[in-house]
Write a structure and sequence with these properties.
Strand content: under 5%
Oligomer: single chain
Shape: globular
Number of helices: 15
Keywords: Glycoprotein, Membrane, Transmembrane, Transmembrane helix
Family: Belongs to the unc-93 family.
Membrane topology: Multi-pass membrane protein
InterPro entries: Ion_channel_UNC-93, MFS_trans_sf, UNC-93-like_regulator
Pfam family, one: UNC-93
CATH superfamily of the largest domain: MFS general substrate transporter like domains
Length: 398
């Protein structure tokens, strides 16, 4: 449902604005959490569909708000800070779960309700805080244009060009929908589909990875170690978000390789090697006493979880920045296309993960990692070449 809703969420964001879109999306999450209090099957299914649409609205609204508060030079850092906040939820949530579930063999109704109340309160507070986000100057200019006042696209672009801003075009919902199709069939995005598939596949594997750790019976107290693996996942995500502020993205490396991408690639490959050697092939299907290639270690598995999430966040961040450079006037629609493809590929690989063993999936992941990274590098090089040609011709760069 999230993937399908991605096609209409940019149009909704154009009509409601970024803050209102985020608020409506967050309300869907509140409904989803509250549905667990009733434990009614049909209600859970309806709420699951609703939260998919809410996630599409929330992600699109967040993307739009980030874009309105960023320019070409600050977007990467702002996205990194966003992922730090986003991944901190995994850290805090797993910390709470660890203390609540300590010494419990079964989850009783009281503990379950306590967790639901905690999550409901946190989500509700987060939703309320969205109302206090400042209304940025660029949105005021866009509002003037929607109302047909003296501001028009030319005036807006002149006012925002000083800031090298990511200017978003003002269009009707139908035009926004058509723009999404034009973006997805563009040459650059068709090449980047390999990267989108890689990100979607690896996203599912970040969920599968910790399950493999818990299912490996050769690891003593493997289930008890899962909250620590979750904590390291959150820390890895936060580290991945901080890296753009620490490492200069344009450091000169051979073949115009971006240093963050190189670091994330190494993290990905290392985590795949750890999973291949540390977990048995059958650990992806359930509890197993099969032996791995090496003596299975919980701490090695937790290290792999950390590295995997560093790679995931950096690849998401770098892909979003590249899309913003490719489509500076339609970044929200480009992000929606990216998230649509990512969700579709995630659903596809999630279904396939029930039939392929862990080691087979790791080989596929490595192959798509290589293809995705090469597609990213090729499109980046094409963009760099076009910018040089425009600079020589005296055409102003976006």
């Amino acid at each position: 449902m999230c993937g399908v809703s991605m096609w209409i969420s940019p149009a909704v964001c154009n009509v409601l604005g970024s803050k209102a879109t985020m608020f409506v999306g967050a309300l869907c999450f509140i409904v989803f959490i509250c549905s667990f209090f009733f434990s009614i099957t049909w209600l859970l299914y309806v709420a699951s569909g609703l939260v998919g649409s809410g996630a599409a609205l929330l992600w699109t609204g967040q993307s739009a708000y980030l874009i309105l508060n960023s320019n070409q030079t600050t977007l990467e850092t702002n996205l990194g800070l966003f992922f730090v906040l986003y991944q901190s939820g995994a850290f805090i949530g797993n910390l709470v779960i660890y203390f609540l579930f300590t010494d419990k063999t079964y989850i009783d109704a009281e503990t379950r309700n306590l967790v639901l109340v905690f999550v409901s309160v946190v989500v509700t507070l987060g939703t309320v805080l969205l109302l206090f986000l400042p209304h940025y100057e660029k949105e005021d200019l866009l509002d003037l244009d929607k109302k047909g006042n003296e501001s028009n696209d030319i005036v807006i672009q002149k006012k925002l060009a000083k800031d090298s801003a990511l200017i978003q075009s003002i269009e009707s919902p139908f035009q926004t929908f058509k723009k999404g199709w034009k973006i997805i069939v563009s040459v650059d995005v068709l090449i980047l589909l390999f990267m989108f598939f890689n990100i979607g596949f690896s996203y599912i594997f970040t969920i599968v990875y910790n399950s493999c750790l818990g299912f490996t019976r050769a690891i003593p107290k493997a289930v008890e170690m899962l909250p620590f693996a979750g904590l390291m996942s959150g820390i890895g995500g936060m580290v991945g978000g901080i890296l753009p502020a620490i490492i200069k993205p344009e450091l000169p490396l051979p073949f115009n390789i971006r240093p963050l991408m190189l670091l994330a690639f190494i993290c990905y490959v290392t985590s795949y090697v750890i999973a291949f050697l540390n977990f048995p092939d059958s650990s992806i299907f359930g509890y197993t006493y099969d032996k791995a290639y090496i003596h299975s270690s919980a701490y090695l598995g937790i290290l792999g979880s950390l590295l995997l999430h560093i790679g995931e966040v950096v690849y998401n961040n770098e892909t979003a920045v590249l899309l913003a450079k490719l489509f500076p006037n339609d970044t929200v629609s480009a992000f929606a296309v990216f998230l649509f493809c990512k969700n579709c590929f995630s659903a596809l690989t999630f279904t396939g993960s029930n039939f392929a063993g862990l080691h087979t999936q790791l080989l596929c992941l490595t192959g798509f990692l290589l293809l995705g990274t090469l597609s990213f590098w090729y499109v980046s090089k094409r963009l760099h070449r076009r910018r040089i040609e425009k600079s020589i011709a005296g055409v102003p760069l976006p």
